[in-house]
Amino acid sequence: MAVHDSSRDSTSLKGTLSTCEEKFPTALTVLLDVVRGPERFPADQELKEMLRGKLRVLQVDSAEVDALFMELSGHVISINSEENSIVVTFKTFDEIWKFTTYYKLGFLAQCMENLLLDQKFWLSSLEEEVAIVLWNIYSHLQISFTVLCSARGTCLATGEYVAEGSDELNIAPGDRIIIMGILVSCFEWFTGRKERTGEVGLVKTSLVKPSADTFSLVHHFCYPVLTKQTVKSSHVTILCYSVLSLFQLTLLFFCFSYAVHSSGKADTQTDLKKNIQRFLEQGKDSSPDFIGIMNETLKSSALPTEPKGPGLPCFTVHPVVEVNSTENFIPLFSFLDGQDYKVEFGHLYGLNSEVLASSTFSGHSDHDELIAFLCAARETARKKRLFWSQTRLCFLLGKLCAGRSKFSQASIYFEEALGIPLESFTDLRLVASIYSHLAAIYLLQKSSESFFAVTERLVALLLGIPVCLQNLDNSVLKYVLKKAILSHNTMAEARACYLLAKYHWNCADRAQSVPYLERLLVLYVEAQRTWRISLSHGYVALGKLYGELCLPYLSVTSARRASLQSSATLSDCLSSMVLALDNVHKLYAITETSVLPQVAPFLQQALCFTRAQGGGRDQYYVLTHQLTVCLCQLFYKHKMVEPAIFQMHTLINSPPSQQVPISVQERNSALIWLAWLHIDNKQPNVAFDILDLVLSCMPEHCTTPQEGVALNMCGVALRCMSDLQRAAESYQTAIDICKEYEDLSNWPVAQANLGLLCLKAGAKELAERHLTEAVQLFSELDEKGHEANFITVLLELGQHYLKQQQLYYAKGCYEWALLLAISQLSATRKLCHLYRCESPDQAQCIIYSQHQIQLLRRIRDRGLEGDALVAISQLYLSLGTERAYRVALDYTKSSLGIFIDLGCRKKEAYGWLQAGKIYHLLGQTELVDLYVQVAQDTALSTGDTRFILKLLEAAGDIFFNSCKDREKAITFYRDRALPITVKTDSVPTRLRLCNKLTEVMLSLKLYREAVEFAQTALDISITLGDCLNERVACHRLASLHHCLEQHELAEHYYLKTLTLCPTPLEFEEETLYYVRVYQTLGDIIFYDLKDPFDAAGYYHLALAAAMDLGNKRSQLQLCTRLATIYHNFLKDRDLSLFFYQKARGFAAELNVRRINISPDQWYSTTS
């Protein structure tokens, strides 16, 4: 901590700091590890991998860790996830000092926990005590201080001393002196009280020795931040923070697709029923509504304003004449006289010269006239021997002269004030003010000897009597701190830090008190002893200051450290919880006011305190109840239903002597909440029993809004038990009660539940009516808090419209839901699905997909963000333009980076492959092989054979589906993927690969190689009984044999293909296939085998199919060929003329000019 002051020690201190600065490293490697339990045993591999995964994410996106270390006064150089390390550097010695301070206070590790641990982890690790520890820091950043003599208690005088002023004590050898505050060996004076006479004054440190009851303990400091009233108010704040919204009815119509399970053993359920019955009975004579009590407590616990002292009187200044009347000074003397301190004097001592001249005195034209009047008053007081009036007048004259920069004259007045013969100086604040002004003047006059003499006396007063601090300058306090540090006296340093922190706090310059409060706590921690002060209060005070300075990590960590102190009490725990609630949302840049999981440890600890300290007091019972419900809500919010149920059962199953005397409404609300937890835990029968008990305790002939809530919940439980009839009746009764009481917040919920029940029962029209009514009711609500329920109803109604093919209404519901919840994912996902699948619109789908990515980034779900980036990349790829390809490439690379960070090796492999595919589409062939090879290597590193097979096939597909480099597909299919299919006996994949190899080889005219794979495909298809693939294989074999001029085999496989075609024909494509195959067979027989007669038979079959299809161009071709055969080869002129005329007719229709039936035109091979 650097101390800025103009004194003779400044040079030596600067030299000390420079020397220290050279010894400190400029870079520091912080090693992180996860430990478990109070013994700090190494955590299991799963937790270690969780830490590495988070560090991998931070390696790419280091904004969060940069922000944290900026708070900690460091700068991140690099992050190594494999070694679990972060390398930090520092630019100034001040940054090193702060970082070291945070480490010694235990802040670093807990700040890293807030950064690296997931939200849910805070709840799951409540019992396990998992923590993050840091290594390799203390050895680099260690600063030690040696504790010398500091004491309090009493001491004995060793010599005689005659006081030179009224501020000193006369002492004789053997006098017992009571130490006021502390006695510090490095200072010349201390404040003491003579035990025999009770006189208070300054005593030379060198003239005393310890007595039997002298002990080395720092004074009982009181932090200026927290009072009992503040803590009492904190109790109420934490209760009202989330409790007021606990019992608001939420939409309880989630779709349960599970079978109803039993709730456990029968005796356990019976015991629960008995305890609930007792819980219900004890509330009949309970206290009034808890919320009302809390409101009253809030009013009664408001912080009292500090009582203001009476205002200063205003004195009239009379003109100075040679003979002044004493009567002119009587009011002034009456006010200033008296040896004891008064509140009015405190205000007077604190006024500056301008305010003093303008507000306290009137009737003067300028300062000179006022000073002349006060000089005359001083002289009169001296003659009248009114020593206290004379002393205070000298002080006022000194202030006025100093204000006009007449420092020599001011020092004369101040010295005169100290030299006036008084019996004893009981107004110690006056003495301190005089010393303070004198020290400032001596400093300006560069009178070092006088400055140190006066400062030593002032220090003695401040160390003994902290109230003297008011209205003083902090230069003296910095001198105290500097001398304590150079003397290596930690007790004096602690006292100086406390006084400086208090000084800045009182001056409303609270930010300046932070370093002093930090150092004070470090000194306490390093002492490793039990203090009379509350360290928890210190940490809370520091946390409040961090919060005001917008340092949320340090603020939340301070709150946690406060609650972890061994001396922490329930009040400390609640105060820490309030501090954490105020700042934890800032860690994640969110504005919601719900309780976050980081507060769970505070709730757990507070529950332990309340259960241990209950002692029959109602306020502890009420607090236990509310803390339990709050903790349950946290568990439920993060899908941890069983722990939530356990907490509620612990509350209900407590002994009768510890039952909570809460209001009937709160009691019922808690049980309804427990019922919902059991429903969510797939125990609707248990929930129904609880709700039945609640309803049975309600008045029979006097319904209440809460009865409607319970009936609505009963409907949910009955629906889960598949008792739809009773569920509908329960919902309808709830709706009737809501109508009766005009309960507009719960009415649409029950209405929506009934609508969804109708949907499940298949009554679509009735369901639509109820859901539409629910939407109308929700839309009429003005208050906030119902948006989530409204959105859910809109999404369900939109899904109903979608199934009914009413796309216009579906779009309306989805877009309305999105407008209500622009920051929610569910509506955006529905719209993405709608525009991708149900009502394809690429532009709209891209817009909503981009919005979805923004939402995912906001909630920091990197896994889902990566998947969304992959989806939008595919959308841009489908546009088919070079610009769209490049945008798709950017999204693919972004998703690839996320998957690498998260360690998702399979998704990473597909990411590399997708990037290679896009480069192939862009024609950048030099990068394609590189990306595909990396994808292959990544897939091999997973060790998953089936996944490797899929990726190799996908790699081949890149070239298979392209018109460039198709031969590369053969390498992936035949040389890499196919052997794996044989090894793993993956028959369907082998069939698919054989088909692809046949196709690509056929296109590359590798006919002989292709025959082998086509035959294999045919054999596998026959084995699997796959008729479609068998037909495809036969067709390809026929084509291959045709190309190889093996015409008999080609004819055989073409005919076999036709026998595998389905009959009767259903689609035009099937008829067209017959036309082409028969025509191909005719061509083979006619042109290759030179058999016109058989060829004519195939052409006739082809012509019949073409006529059935109505394909005139095919009929033209076939009639022409038949005319040619009958005219030139079979010599049947009638048929030749018939087909020729038919061909002429088709030619005229198709605008074909000439038909050639000469034998030379057609009689050639087709191979």
UniProtKB/TrEMBL annotation:
Leader sequence segment: none
| Assigned keywords, A-Z | Membrane, SH3 domain, Transmembrane, Transmembrane helix
Q: Cross-referenced PROSITE patterns, in alphabetical order?
A: SH3
Residue limits of the SH3 domain? 150-213
Q: Give the stretches traversing the membrane.
A: 238-260
Q: Does the keyword Ligase apply?
A: no
Q: Which domain of life is it from?
A: Eukaryota
Extract the InterPro entries matched here. SH3-like_dom_sf, SH3_domain, SH3TC1/SH3TC2, TPR-like_helical_dom_sf, TPR_rpt
Q: Is the keyword tRNA-binding assigned to this protein?
A: no
Q: What is this protein called?
A: SH3 domain and tetratricopeptide repeats 1
The source organism is Mastacembelus armatus
